[in-house]
Amino acid sequence: MAKVNSKNASSRFVKKITGVLSMLAKDKNPLETIAGFAILFITAYFLIWGILTARTGNVSGYSLITNFASVGGLTRGSDVAVNGVRVGSISELRLNPIDYTVDVVMSIDSRYRFPKDTKAKITTYGIIGDKYIRLQIGTSTEFANSRDRIRSVPYRSLEEMIGNFIFQE
Known about the structure:
alpha/beta, 2 domains, eight-stranded mixed β-sheet
């Protein structure tokens, strides 16, 4: 008896959905309806593609730490790259209680080793792109180990550079 009721309930549900769709399409040109569904399909396709291809999450490996006076929009999960190749991500941003600068903890893929004199610089993908840390490879023969500190290049925001250019004295 329960199966009969569930079949009736599902058929009533299908009839209601069909009725709603026919009301939406009532007095509409079939071409407009097809175009609407095509736009919905294309939007869903790009949304799913974006979710599946996004490079999010932390890289597992060893940690390097650097320090900046200002991180200018850098966030947890931002990329760490060398010559345009992603080699890690930012796992933590924390305020240093001694001098109120920002300690940036980078999680670096264990396949990559960098000299101890490597420098970290905040930069963007293009003029208005996302911020990331670009590592400038050093020349030391010793490699940085996990939890080592590397030097940073002071960050200057685009707004700061434009302000200095406009109001130079």
